[in-house]
Amino acid sequence: MINADFLTADYPEAVEIDDLDVHGPSRFFNRELSWLAFNWRVLDEASNPRVPLMERVRFLAISSTNLDEFYTVRVAGLRELANAGNRTPSSDGRTPDEQLVLIDQNARALITKQDAVWEALKGEMEASNIWLMDAESLSEADREFLDSYFMSNVFPVLSPLAIDPAHPFPFIPNEGFSLALQLERPNDGRSLQALLPIPAQIERFISLPCGQGHQRFLPMEQLLLLKIGEMFPGYKTTGHCAFRLLRDSDLEVEEEAEDLVREFEVALKRRRRGEVVRLKMSADAPAKLRNLIMKSLEVTEKDVIEIYGMIGLSDLGELVSAAPRNLLWPSFSPRVPERVQDNDGDMFAAIRQKDMLLHHPYESFDMVIRFLAQAARDPNVVAIKQTLYRTSHQSPIVEALCEAAENGKSVTALVELKARFDEAANIRQSRKLERSGAHVVYGFINYKTHAKISTVVRREGDSLVTYTHYGTGNYHPITARIYTDLSLFTCDASLGRDATKVFNYIGGYAQPEHLENLYLSPTGMKKKLIKMIDKEAGYAAEGRPAEIWAKMNAVVEVDVIDALYRASQAGVKINLVVRGICAVRPGIKGLSENIRVKSIVGRFLEHSRIVCFGNGHGLPSKKAKVYMSSADWMSRNLNRRVETLVEITNKTVQAQVMSQIMAANLADTSQSWVLSPDGSYERAEVEGQENPFNCHRFFMENPSLSGRGSAGAGDVPELTHTPD
C-alpha cells in the first residue's frame, strides 16, 4: 500500500532568509526562472540511471523542445516589452530587461548541459549497438545505399539557393534548419555563397542497413554535405555551417474581428514571419558565413548561441521511435474499468449506476471516445455538446461528433481557435464539423475556452437525462497515453445543469447564474478558491485540524499565493504538488513555514488539477471538500480563460481522489523533487529506501486501486492514520 511517511512526517524547521521582505515582491519566485528550473529537472531525467536508455534520449529531446517553445512565446514577449521601453516589474519585482539577462545566463548553461548529456548518451547508445555515423565512417556499401536513398527520398524536395545580388537571402521560417555553404569552382576559381534549407518534411536521421540487433543512423546534414556536388555541379565546399532559428510565435488578433477564423488564418501567416528570438549556429562557422547569416536575419551577438555538438536535439525523438523495446519503458496497456465491462461496454448503463472517475493513462481514454461514439449511434440521444481545445489530427472525437450530426442529432462544438500552436489544426477541425452539420462556435475573443466538458442528452422514458463528462486534460487520445488526468462521468442532474449553463455562456454570452456544484473562471473560481483557503485558515485559528492538498501544473497567481501564505501563518498544513512553474516560497519563518512543495517528473506527465480542503477535519477525511479542475493557479487561467472547478460529491470518488491519487503523489519519492526556500530543487530523500515509492509504477501495478472507485466495487481503502 501507500507509504504515508511523507504525510505524517513533521514539517522541516522553517528558515529565515536575510533581507527577505515577506510583504514585498521577494516573497515570490520569478515565473520564468521557475520554468527554467522545471526544464532542468526534465533534463536531469536524461541522466537518471533508473530510466531506460532511449527514454533518457526522449527526455533530452523534450527538454530541447520545451526550451524552444519557451523562447518563441515567453522570451519573445519579454523582448517586445523591453524593446518598447516597458519597465513594469513582474510579481517578483524584476523588469523585462532584468529577466532577459537572467534567462539568457540560465538558458545558455542549460544548452551547454544538453550538449554534454547528448555526448554521454551517444556513448551509451554505442554500447547498446546504436551508432550515429558521420560521413568519414561510411563504407562503400553505405555510400551506394545513400546514393539511391538521396535520389529517391531527398533530392526531389531540396531547394538549393545561391546567395548573390540576384538571389537575396531567403525567408527561413520558425524552427527552420539550414546549411550555409562556401563554395568554389576549381576550373575558374569563382566563389559562391549558398543556403541549403533542410525541409521539415524529411526525416532527420537515415537508417543505414546493418545486421540484426544493431542500428546505424546518419544525420541528414551529413548526407547533404556528401552530395554538394550533385546540387551545385562543378563546385566544391570550402566552408560550411549549420544553423537553426526560432521566431516570435505569439499571435495577436484584433479584438473586433468580424470573422474569427479568417483573422486567425492571417495571424498564423504573420507568425511565420515573426522576429528572430534565438539563433543556434555551429561553433566553427566560417566568419564570412556567420556574418552573412546574422546580417540577413537581423540578429546581434546576444541572439546567437554557438553549438559544438548537434543542432536540433528536439529531433532525437526520431531515434526513440525506432528504438528496440528493451531500451524503452516496459509496455503498459491502459485498463478498461470493470463496471464498463460488466455492462457489455455500455457507457450509459455504467454511468447510471453511479458517478465514474477514470484515472488516465492507467484507465483507458478510449472510454471517453466510446462515450461519444455510442452517443452518435444511439437513437435515444438527441443532443451532444462538446468543448475542443486540443485534439489529435485524425481525431476520433471529431469523427464521433460528425457522425452524430450526420445522424440528425443536435451537435454543438466549441472549438478554441486560440489553443497555442494548434490554431491551424482547430480551424481544419471546425470546418469539418460544419460540413457535417454541427453547430460550431468559437467562444470569446478576449478569453480562451480551456474547460473540458462534454454533455450527451438522452431520452429515457418520458424525460431527458443529461450525461456529463468533466476532464482535467484535453480531448486528445495520443497525449492521453502519457498525461495523467482525471475524467468524471456523471448523470447527476445538477452537474448536467451546470454544464449546460457553461455552454450557454460560451455560445450566447449568457452569464451563468446559480451554478450548483461548479465554479467558473473568469466569473467566480478565483474568489471561491481564496474563500476556501481563508476558511481553512479560520479552522486553524479555532484549533481544529486544517489542511490543504493541491496538485497543479503551475502556481503563480499572486492573490491565491498570498491566501496560502495567510493560511500557513494561521497554522494550516499545506502540501502542494506542482509539476512546473511555482512562485511559492515554502518553509520561510513568518511567511510559509507550513507549506511544502514538490514536483514529480517521471514516466508520465503529471497533468491533473486537484484541490482538497480538510474542511475542519484534516486530510484525508470523509468530510473534506474535493475538487477537480481544468485550471492551473495562474493569472491567465483564473482571470482570462473559461475554466471549470468541479466539486466531487460522491463519497467513493472523493476517497479515490484523496486516499489513492493524492496520497500516492504525496508519498512518491522515486520521481520527486522538493522545492527549497531559496528556489532550488533537490531530489527527494531516498537513502535507506530499498525500493523508493513510485506513484506511476504504483498505479500501473495496482489495477484494483486505480479502477476501484470507477468500478464501484466496495469502498476505497483509506490511509490508516486518517483523522475524521
Concise synopsis of the structure shown:
The chain is an alpha/beta fold. The strands form four sheets. Strands 14, 18, 19, 20, 21, 23, 24, 25, 26 and 27 form a ten-stranded mixed β-sheet that branches.
Please provide a written account of the structure:
A hairpin with a 6-residue loop joins strand 5 and strand 6 (215-219). The protein is α/β, with parallel strands linked by helices. It has three domains: 98-327, Polyphosphate kinase middle domain (polyphosphate kinase like); 338-433 and 452-478, Endonuclease Chain A (Endonuclease, Chain A); 520-685 and 693-711, Endonuclease Chain A (Endonuclease, Chain A, 2-Layer Sandwich), CATH 3.30.870. The longest helix has 32 residues, at 96-127. The strands form four sheets. Strands 14, 18, 19, 20, 21, 23, 24, 25, 26 and 27 form a ten-stranded mixed sheet that branches. Strands 10, 11, 12, 13, 15, 16, 17 and 22 form an eight-stranded mixed sheet that branches. Helix 3 packs antiparallel against helix 4 and helix 14 runs parallel beside helix 15 (423-436). 37% of the residues lie in helices and 21% in strands. Mean pLDDT is 90; it is low at 253-258 and 706-724.
How big a fraction of the residues is strand?
15-25%
CATH superfamily caption of the largest domain: Polyphosphate kinase middle domain
Distance between the termini: 20 Å
Here the CATH topology of the largest domain equals polyphosphate kinase like
Tell me the CATH architecture of the largest domain: 2-Layer Sandwich
From the helix content, strand content and strand pairing, which structural class follows? alpha/beta
Largest sheet: 10 strands, mixed
CATH class of the largest domain: Alpha Beta
Rg computed from alpha carbons, rounded to a whole number of angstroms: 27 Å
Average pLDDT for all residues: 90
Low-confidence stretches: 253-258, 706-724
The number of strands is 27
**Overall geometry:** globular
Helix-residue proportion = 25-40%
